[in-house]
């Protein structure tokens, strides 16, 4: 059966099968028609054609497949341009192109599936105002391409798993919207490999978080508001996160996801970076124990209640919050003659006797090691000393001297003043070791006094 609709008004056509023709259905210069619930296949040119000045036609709920050229062709010229046609709820598969639009204006394509076509799932050229919204385009050779079509909108589509590329940068035309689609991955490095040419970053953001859109008509695809006010505060080996509660006017917002990474870029985040799901939504804080020292970066997203057909999969997810970061100091192992120097008192003569020690970084990050002179009773990291058997010798007349090998102090360095901070090693890599020599001396006028007792303490900071 071959159907031609010419100059007809307000006609509804429910056919059953259109196949083995040149074109299965041709709508030429007709308006206000509805073509629905048809099987259109195995035609030598196109499955369904809208041409000339056809306008305000609705094509929906058809299965259009195995046609030699295009599943759907909307074709016009500068003087005869199809206008304001709607294509929705159709399945177009195993054609050359799922749908091709050329020389038409303001066409709306929504809630369709373009799958397994041998060339393009969707191809559009010289078609201003085209709107491609809430469609699935997958397993085609190429996913989607726009050329010379100003003011087009390509948004909320599932464009993934196409063979050569999922999309390519628009060519020519004016302002357009090409964002918030689901490209099969939230990882920028993966996305780039499936996008022909050098994609502008704006195409990638704001992409779909997280998973396919439900393209069923009237499905909930409303974007949730971003989480704001995220802060991260270090508390020993833990990091406390706090954020503002997200408004919930629709009542379907049910939980937060917390993402964590070792760098500040969100472009390579994936579900593997989710460390916690927080529910109920009144909870706006979380304590994290990172697996290793260093800087840690966090993002929060909001998710709504999963809806059919996805069931338990949370796919309506807000865009990432601004990140917050906090730093966990690396752990040092300080070894001196098999004795931990944090609490070791070393007895030295006042002259030239010295103690050789080793500082090794057994943590997970490079670190800087700093020493400091403090009062003996002040329990902070540093170097402190006290004098014994010397009633007439003042503490500030005692000199602590230090030098390192493979460190920052190649020669003896005198430490006389309290609270004087000095660098033992500028950058001690993981597994690195610094040899440390410490001695206690006194000025010449008090050379008869001794021995002296010294306590060594050190701290590590970021390089």
Mind sketching the topology for me?
Blueprint: E1 3-6, E2 12-13, E3 17-19, E4 23-28, E5 34-36, E6 39-41, E7 46-51, E8 58-60, E9 63-65, E10 70-75, E11 86-88, E12 91-93, E13 97-102, E14 108-110, E15 113-115, E16 120-125, E17 131-133, E18 136-138, E19 142-147, E20 153-155, E21 158-160, E22 165-168, E23 177-178, H1 188-193, E24 195-196, H2 201-204, E25 231-235, E26 238-242, E27 253-261, E28 274-278, E29 285-288, E30 294-304, E31 324-328, E32 333-336, E33 339-340, E34 345-348, E35 354-360, E36 367-372, E37 383-387, E38 399-405, E39 413-415, E40 421-428, E41 433-441, E42 452-456, E43 458-461
Parallel strand pairs: 1-4, 2-5, 3-6, 4-7, 5-8, 6-9, 7-10, 8-11, 9-12, 10-13, 11-14, 12-15, 13-16, 14-17, 15-18, 16-19, 17-20, 18-21, 19-22, 20-23, 22-24
Antiparallel strand pairs: 25-26, 26-29, 27-28, 27-30, 30-31, 32-33, 32-35, 34-42, 35-41, 36-40, 36-43, 37-42, 38-39, 38-41
Description:
This protein is mostly beta strands and 463 residues long. The chain is built from 2 helices and 43 strands. It folds into 3 domains: 3-204, 3 Solenoid (Pectate Lyase C-like), CATH 2.160.20; 231-328, Sandwich (Immunoglobulin-like); 333-461, Jelly Rolls. Strands 1-4-7-10-13-16-19-22-24 form a 9-stranded parallel β-sheet. Strands 2-5-8-11-14-17-20-23 form an 8-stranded parallel β-sheet, with no helix packed on it. Strand 32 and strand 33 (339-340) form a beta hairpin. The chain is elongated, with a radius of gyration of 36 Å. Residues 5-11, 333-352, 374-396 and 444-453 have low confidence and may be disordered.
């Amino acid at each position: 059966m071959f159907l031609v609709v010419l100059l007809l008004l307000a006609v509804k056509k429910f056919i059953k099968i259109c196949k083995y023709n040149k074109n299965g259905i041709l709508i030429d210069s007709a308006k206000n028609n509805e073509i629905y619930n048809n099987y259109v296949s195995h035609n030598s040119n196109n499955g369904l054609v809208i041409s000339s000045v056809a306008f305000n036609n609705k094509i929906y709920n058809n299965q259009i497949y195995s046609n030699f050229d295009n599943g759907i062709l909307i074709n016009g010229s500068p003087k005869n341009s199809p206008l304001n046609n709607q294509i929705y709820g159709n399945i177009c598969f195993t054609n050359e192109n799922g749908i091709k639009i050329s020389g038409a204006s303001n066409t709306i394509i929504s809630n369709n599936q373009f799958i397994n076509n041998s060339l393009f799932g969707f191809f559009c050229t010289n078609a201003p105002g085209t709107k491609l919204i809430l469609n699935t385009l997958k397993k085609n050779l190429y996913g989607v391409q726009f050329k010379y079509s100003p003011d087009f909108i390509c948004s909320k589509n599932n464009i993934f798993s196409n063979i050569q590329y999922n999309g390519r940068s628009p060519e020519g035309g004016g302002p357009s919207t090409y964002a918030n689609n689901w490209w099969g991955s939230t990882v920028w490095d993966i996305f780039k490999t499936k996008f022909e040419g050098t994609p502008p970053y704006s195409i990638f953001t704001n992409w779909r978080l997280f998973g396919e859109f439900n393209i069923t008509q009237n499905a909930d695809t409303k974007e949730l508001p971003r989480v704001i006010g995220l802060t991260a505060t270090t508390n020993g080996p833990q990091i406390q996160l706090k954020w503002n509660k997200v408004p919930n006017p629709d009542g379907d917002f049910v939980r937060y996801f917390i993402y964590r990474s070792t760098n500040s870029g969100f472009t390579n985040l994936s579900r593997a970076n989710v460390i916690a799901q927080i529910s109920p939504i009144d909870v706006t804080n979380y304590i994290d124990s990172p697996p290793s020292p260093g800087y840690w970066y966090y993002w929060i997203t909001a998710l709504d209640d999963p809806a059919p057909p996805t069931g338990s999969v949370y796919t309506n997810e807000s865009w990432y919050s601004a990140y917050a970061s906090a730093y966990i100091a690396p752990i040092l192992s300080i070894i001196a003659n098999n004795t931990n120097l944090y609490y070791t008192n070393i007895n030295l003569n006042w002259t030239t006797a010295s103690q050789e020690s080793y500082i090794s970084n057994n943590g997970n990050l490079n670190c800087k090691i700093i020493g400091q002179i403090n009062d003996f009773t002040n329990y902070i990291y540093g170097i402190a000393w006290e004098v014994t058997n010397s009633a007439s010798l003042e503490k500030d007349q005692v000199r602590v001297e230090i030098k390192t090998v493979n460190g920052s102090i190649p020669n003896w360095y005198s430490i006389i003043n309290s609270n004087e901070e000095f660098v033992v090693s500028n950058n001690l890599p993981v597994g690195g070791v610094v040899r440390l020599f410490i001695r206690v001396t006194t000025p010449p006028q008090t050379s008869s006094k001794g021995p002296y007792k010294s306590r060594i303490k050190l701290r590590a900071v970021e390089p």
